[in-house]
Design brief:
single chain, alpha+beta, 9 strands, 7-stranded mixed barrel
């Protein structure tokens, strides 16, 4: 696999500590599905039609400016020179302004992830130390980074043996959950709550054990292969409408369903490993009990 190419090079700084670092894209855009607009008659690519919606005139690039709508159909015009004045010069430094508890970050603030790597062998030791310290403390660093002419809030977090930075949305950009229609607090029935918690416990697992696949992307690729091969395209069957049942019945049925799941298959090697672990634990317990008896005597 080809080595990742950095998109930014600079320093990560907190207090008097400075670490030379590089920023890399964490998202593999090759996995995304992109379509092109095609002329049906000759398979020609369709270009962007720069046509004014008001006068329907086709425009040249020199005729187009940026406008900010401050009232319905009322715009402030921005020329290129105006926007150039707003561009922030990259300081080539990610300044960490403080460290916060992981639980304090609202998940709605997360935007795009990037990987952070050490720039050179000398930076490696300090970089690893910061990763280990963040992991051990449960803290995330919060700082600022100028990337592509704009300043973003970033979160520096440990990931495996390295560091990842998340570009964050500004808190003012996030709407309140209370603005969502029909979101309100309802009285909770104790029995319903107990059953719901039991269901959650019975379904608890880890992300590593879950199958998380982009089914749409896979289906598009399968369809592309079928079309190239001249095969007939079979439509995906629409799911039937889900029947709504009362909450208590649904919870009880769900719990029963999870109980009936087949037991986990264990290989002979895993069984042997578990048995060895069990016998070691028993031996340790016996040794501790013997020591206690001797001390008491």
């Amino acid at each position: 696999m080809a080595a990742l190419r950095s998109i930014w090079k600079g320093h990560l700084r907190f207090s008097l500590v400075t670490i030379p670092v590089r920023v890399y894209n964490a998202v593999d855009t090759a996995e995304s599905i992109h379509f092109n607009q095609i002329h049906r008659d000759d398979n020609g690519r369709v270009g962007y039609d720069k046509k004014c919606k008001k006068c329907e005139q086709v425009l040249e690039m020199s005729d187009i400016v940026k406008g900010y709508e401050y009232e319905p159909d009322m715009y402030v015009i921005f020329e290129k020179d105006d926007l150039d004045k707003l561009k922030l010069k990259s300081t080539k430094v990610i300044d960490i302004e403080g460290f916060v508890d992981e639980q304090e970050i609202d998940p709605a603030l997360y935007d795009a992830p990037y990987y952070l790597g050490p720039d050179g062998d000398v930076a490696g030791k300090t970089y690893s130390l910061l990763s280990a310290a963040l992991k051990d403390s449960g803290k995330f660093g919060v700082g600022k980074l100028v990337l592509r002419d704009r300043e973003d809030i970033v979160l520096v977090a440990p990931k495996a043996e390295g560091l990842v930075i998340y570009k964050l949305r500004y808190p003012k950009e996030i709407r309140k959950i209370s603005d969502v229609p029909l979101v309100e607090k309802h009285a909770t029935n104790k029995e319903e709550l107990k059953l719901a918690k039991n269901l959650i416990d019975s379904m608890s697992t880890s992300l590593a054990k879950m199958t998380l696949e982009n089914k749409y992307a896979d289906a598009v690729r399968d369809m592309v292969e079928a079309k190239v091969a001249g095969e007939e395209i079979v439509a995906i069957e629409e799911p039937k409408d889900t029947e709504v049942v009362d909450i208590m019945t649904a919870l009880r049925q769900s719990i029963e369903k999870t109980k009936k799941r087949p037991m986990e298959k264990v290989s002979s090697e895993q069984a042997e490993e578990r048995a060895t672990k069990k016998s070691k634990t028993k031996a340790k317990t016996k040794a501790k009990a013997k020591t206690k008896r001797r001390t008491a005597a």
